[in-house]
Amino acid sequence: DQQVKQNSPSLSVQEGRISILNCDYTNSMFDYFLWYKKYPAEGPTFLISISSIKDKNEDGRFTVFLNKSAKHLSLHIVPSQPGDSAVYFCAAKSQGGGNKLTFGTGTQLKVEL
Amino acid sequence: EPEVTQTPSHQVTQMGQEVILRCVPISNHLYFYWYRQILGQKVEFLVSFYNNEISEKSEIFDDQFSVERPDGSNFTLKIRSTKLEDSAMYFCASTPPGGAQPQHFGDGTRLSIL
Q1: What does each of the 114 residues of chain B score in pLDDT, given as a tens digit?
Q2: Which of B37, B103, B107 to mutate to test the interface with A (most CBs of A within 10 A)?
């Protein structure tokens, strides 16, 4: 079951630069998308979300872009900071599918000094 | 900031034994969830719970699993007869009422079946 895919298992970025994390999905019934950050030995922490009626949502250094025709979303972090180093999960909720989230496999972001 | 809390942080159990994982969701939240993450794999949905009943469950959530909200604050996941393949991180989550809301997760319980 690969309904949500994060094709890059890892990403390395210099401090101060932009981090771009990508996510693709196959289920056209998904109508709500979320990004979570996870540190080791902690649970996923909610970062930002976007509804399928929008194509962009911004919260401070974090911006999520949604391209419905391409079934693609991305998370931009500007500027990247060392504390952003974590695993980032993309997740999606299906319209009429209850509230369950379908997660991607995650991307390990490392922000280097 | 209110948090979802889970206990214990690590549970070691012999195969075939029953185990209960505990969660205290955020107090004004009405929807509760359990997910699991087997080492090296993605986070997988197990079950959602609303208004004192299961609202949705996955294929993983078979007859060996059950959930309960025994006292209005705790939300538990019971595995009746554990198997080796139940070894995983188990995450509890909750959401407030209304519309599309993000799920807030606890830090998880690491379940190790021997």
Answers
A1: 779 999 999 999 999 999 999 999 998 899 999 999 999 899 999 999 998 999 999 999 999 999 999 887 899 999 999 999 999 999 999 998 877 889 999 999 999 999
A2: B103
b/e sequence A35-66, b meaning 16+ C-beta within 10 Å: bbbbeeeebbbbbbbbebeeeeeeeeebbbbb
Nearest C-alpha neighbor of B6 from the set B14, A96, B26, B16: B26
Residue B90 near residue B77 (C-beta atoms within 8 A): yes
Query: Residue A107: how many CA atoms within 13 Å on its side-chain side?
Result: 24
Instruction: Give B99's contacts in chain A (Cβ within 8 Å).
Output: none
The position carrying tokens 């197990």 is B46
> How far off is chain A from B70, nearest CA to CA, in Å?
22
Q: List all residues 6 or more positions away from A83 whose beta carbon is below 8 Å from its beta carbon.
A: A111
Is the pLDDT assigned to residue A97 strictly greater than 90?
no
- Characterize the bridge pairing of strands A101-103 and A86-94: antiparallel
CA dist list (Å): B88 to A8, B11, B40, B64, B67: 23, 10, 10, 15, 17
Counting Cα atoms < 13 Å in the Cβ hemisphere of A61 gives: 12
The DSSP bridge pattern shows strands B44-50 and B31-37 to be antiparallel
Nearest CA in chain A to B38: A105
